Every structure is written in structure tokens, then in C-alpha cells.
Amino acid sequence: MVTHYLRHLNRWGPTGENYLTQLLGPQLPAGFRIRIINPSGIVIMGRSNTLFDAQRREFEVLRRDSKGVVDIVTYDDLLARLQAVVDQLRGGPAVTAAYASSPTE
Fold it and tell me: Whole-angstrom Cα distance, residue 6 to residue 50?
């Protein structure tokens, strides 16, 4: 599973970073180096609209247990995320927590 891959990626360390930088070098911008820092993964599985209530509860437990390492989503979740991005882009500039002007003005 993804966690197995991530564990090996973390253990690979600088040797893996150098290997991947050399392997992908022609495709990378000049001077770019690959660094492996806190990798995570995503698993896209099935449709949520076909799950029974008990299956939905089990799926949510699995999703929460893996949070922080692997993001487990359904195709429906992925489409909802995409729709949210499209809606945000159509609605204008992104909402930000930064002040438009200095807070003392």
C-alpha cells in the first residue's frame, strides 16, 4: 500500500534524493534538487454513493486512521474538491487571511 512506499521513501534519505535528482534531472529546472521531506500519499477508491451506512462508517474510520500520512478519498470526494476549486476560481480572488492594507490604517 501507499504507507509501505512512503516508509521506504523516508528511509532512502539523501541517497534517494541524489538518485531521483539524477534520474529526473533532464525534466527538472536548472539547479533544482529533489528533497524528501514529510512525503504523503493519496488513495482514490470507489464511489461513496454506493456505500451502505455501515460501510460508510467503516470507511470514515479508515480515512481518519490514515489521516496525516495518506489521504483516502472517493471519486465523489475528488469531484467535490474539483468543483470547489472551480467555484472559487469563477468567484474571483481567493479568500485570504492577510490584510489588504496595514492593520493600523
Answer: 30
Instruction: Give residue 11's domain range.
Output: 1-38
Q: Phi and psi of 99, rounded to 5°?
A: -75, 145
Distance CA 55, CA 63 (A): 12
Kindly state whether residue 104 falls inside one of the protein's structural domains: no
Shared-domain flag, residues 12 and 50: no
DSSP state of 24: H
Dump pLDDT digits (tens) for 76-91: 989 999 999 998 898 8
Give, in order, the Cα–Cα distances in Å from 78 to each of 17, 30, 46, 66: 30, 33, 11, 17
Q: What are phi and psi of 28, to 5 degrees?
A: -100, 155
What predicted TM-score, i.e. pTM, was given to this entire model? 0.58
**C-alpha grid cell for residue 58?**
467503516
pLDDT category at 93 given cuts 50, 70, 90 is low
| 103: in domain | no
What band does 102 get if pLDDT is binned at 50, 70 and 90? very low
